[in-house]
Amino acid sequence: MASTNDLKNGMVLNIEGQLWSVVEFQHVKPGKGPAFVRTKLKAVLSGKVVDKTFNAGTKVETSNVDKRTMQYLYKDGTDFVFMDTDTYDQLNVSEAVVGDAANYLLENQNALVATNEGLPLYVELPASVVLEITHTEPGLQGDRSTGGTKPATLETGAQINVPLFLETGTRVKVDTRDGSYLGRVND
């Protein structure tokens, strides 16, 4: 338990059985009436953002969210198996928790896995990853200057739009937040 006077950005609160992360907070002391704390909270699981006001000094329940860098090992049925890089403990994370991150997740890749009391909450990938195009239609001669795009399948099975001049086998940088093409990688 903590008081609303102790709130900090990033702190995780347990309100009515749901976990909420404090995005921002402001202590307000009006000229008349009691002081209060205005907060912006983000639901840890769904990402929904809400504004909530607490009376100053109100007790709120805090939760400990453990964020660790883990290595993705393999897919086991509908679960993704991650390994803690410090303790070598393995953790099974369901497909629902991994969500869209599965489109950009390769074996042996590191990701941030957040847990609460041993229960996986979400998987966070780096802002961008490098993946290989496994299939795309050949671009037509003369299409290089139009700036058009075409669909391409990545080695993870995800589909993104890439410029017309890219070919199968090219390694590209992809934004993991929205699946957009960021550039070609020469290695």
UniProtKB/TrEMBL annotation:
<dbReference type="GO" id="GO:0003746">
    <property type="term" value="F:translation elongation factor activity"/>
</dbReference>
<dbReference type="Pfam" id="PF01132">
    <property type="entry name" value="EFP"/>
</dbReference>
<dbReference type="Pfam" id="PF08207">
    <property type="entry name" value="EFP_N"/>
</dbReference>
<keyword id="KW-0963">Cytoplasm</keyword>
<dbReference type="InterPro" id="IPR012340">
    <property type="entry name" value="NA-bd_OB-fold"/>
</dbReference>
<dbReference type="InterPro" id="IPR008991">
    <property type="entry name" value="Translation_prot_SH3-like_sf"/>
</dbReference>
<dbReference type="InterPro" id="IPR014722">
    <property type="entry name" value="Rib_uL2_dom2"/>
</dbReference>
<keyword id="KW-0251">Elongation factor</keyword>
<comment type="similarity">
    <text>Belongs to the elongation factor P family.</text>
</comment>
<keyword id="KW-0648">Protein biosynthesis</keyword>
<dbReference type="InterPro" id="IPR015365">
    <property type="entry name" value="Elong-fact-P_C"/>
</dbReference>
<dbReference type="InterPro" id="IPR013852">
    <property type="entry name" value="Transl_elong_P/YeiP_CS"/>
</dbReference>
<dbReference type="GO" id="GO:0043043">
    <property type="term" value="P:peptide biosynthetic process"/>
</dbReference>
<feature type="domain" description="Elongation factor P C-terminal">
    <location>
        <begin position="129"/>
        <end position="184"/>
    </location>
</feature>
<comment type="pathway">
    <text>Protein biosynthesis; polypeptide chain elongation.</text>
</comment>
<feature type="domain" description="Translation elongation factor P/YeiP central">
    <location>
        <begin position="67"/>
        <end position="121"/>
    </location>
</feature>
<dbReference type="Pfam" id="PF09285">
    <property type="entry name" value="Elong-fact-P_C"/>
</dbReference>
<dbReference type="GO" id="GO:0005829">
    <property type="term" value="C:cytosol"/>
</dbReference>
<comment type="function">
    <text>Involved in peptide bond synthesis. Stimulates efficient translation and peptide-bond synthesis on native or reconstituted 70S ribosomes in vitro. Probably functions indirectly by altering the affinity of the ribosome for aminoacyl-tRNA, thus increasing their reactivity as acceptors for peptidyl transferase.</text>
</comment>
<dbReference type="InterPro" id="IPR011768">
    <property type="entry name" value="Transl_elongation_fac_P"/>
</dbReference>
<dbReference type="InterPro" id="IPR013185">
    <property type="entry name" value="Transl_elong_KOW-like"/>
</dbReference>
<protein>
    <recommendedName>
        <fullName>Elongation factor P</fullName>
    </recommendedName>
</protein>
<dbReference type="InterPro" id="IPR020599">
    <property type="entry name" value="Transl_elong_fac_P/YeiP"/>
</dbReference>
<dbReference type="InterPro" id="IPR001059">
    <property type="entry name" value="Transl_elong_P/YeiP_cen"/>
</dbReference>
